[in-house]
Amino acid sequence: MNQLPSTTVKTESLEQMPVMQHLIVLRKYLFRIVGVTLFLFFCLLPFRNYTYQLLSEPLRQQLPATSTMIATDVTATFMAPFKLNLFVALVLAMPFIIYQLWSFVRPALYEKERHLATPLLLGSITLFYLGVAFAYFVTLPAILHFFISVSPESVAPMTDINSYLSFCLKLFLVFGLTFEIPVITLILILVGLVSTQSLIEKRRFIIVGCFFVSMFVTPPDALSMIMLALPMWMLFEVGLFFGKILEKRRAA
C-alpha cells in the first residue's frame, strides 16, 4: 500500500486538529515567550538604573548645566527604570518571540512559503532593530536639541523622568514599526494584493501618505515629521526595488 507524502499527512493532520488543540499548542509557545522575557527582565533588573542613564544621555547632553531631570511622582524613580527594563527585555527577546510565533504557524505553510518566510522574518527583526537604533542615535538627539534650543531664556527645561521615558518608548516603537515597510511591501506583492506597477503609479500618493502619517505619530514639529517621513519613503523604495526582482523571478 502506497504511503502518503509526509507533507500531505502533516497538512491533513493540521486541518483535522480541533481548535482547542491549536490553542493548547499556542499556549505552549506563549509560555516560552513569557518565560524567556521574564528571565531577561530579571537578569537586567540590577542594571535598570544604568540602562536609564543610557536612555537619558541624549537629553542630559542637551540640558543646560543648571538643569536636571526631575521626578514629579514619589514612585517615578522606581517605576521609570522598571518600565524601561521591561521594554529592553522585550526588545532583546524579539528574535526568540518571532521564532516561537514562526514555529507555531510553520506546519501550516507549504514548502515554498517556508523558504520565502524565513528571510522575511530575519529581515523584519533586523529592520526593527535598525529603526530603534536610528531613533536613538539620530532622531532623538536632533529632536531634543530643537526643542531645548527654542525654549525661552526665562524657562529652565527640567524634564520629568516618566514623561521622557514615555516619549522615548513611543519614538522607538514608531521607528521600529515603520522600518518594517520593505517587508510589508514585499508581503503585499507576494500575496498578490498589489503589484510593483500599481505601486509606481500611486507613488506620489504614498509619499504624501508618509508625511501624513508621520505628522500624527511624531511630536508636533516639522523636524520630527521629516525625520520619519523621509526614511518611510526610502524604505518604501527599497521594498519596491526588491519587489521588482521578485516579480522578474516569478516571470522567469
UniProtKB/TrEMBL annotation:
Keyword Metal-binding: no
Protein family per UniProt: Belongs to the TatC family.
HAMAP family: TatC (MF_00902)
Compartments where found: Cell membrane; Membrane
Bilayer-crossing regions: 29-47, 86-105, 117-144, 164-191, 203-219, 225-246
Protein name, UniProt field: Sec-independent protein translocase protein TatC
Membrane topology field: Multi-pass membrane protein
Functional note: Part of the twin-arginine translocation (Tat) system that transports large folded proteins containing a characteristic twin-arginine motif in their signal peptide across membranes. Together with TatB, TatC is part of a receptor directly interacting with Tat signal peptides.
Superkingdom in the source lineage: Bacteria
Family annotation (Pfam families): TatC (PF00902)
Keywords linked to the UniProt accession: Cell membrane, Membrane, Protein transport, Translocation, Transmembrane, Transmembrane helix, Transport
SUBUNIT field: The Tat system comprises two distinct complexes: a TatABC complex, containing multiple copies of TatA, TatB and TatC subunits, and a separate TatA complex, containing only TatA subunits. Substrates initially bind to the TatABC complex, which probably triggers association of the separate TatA complex to form the active translocon.
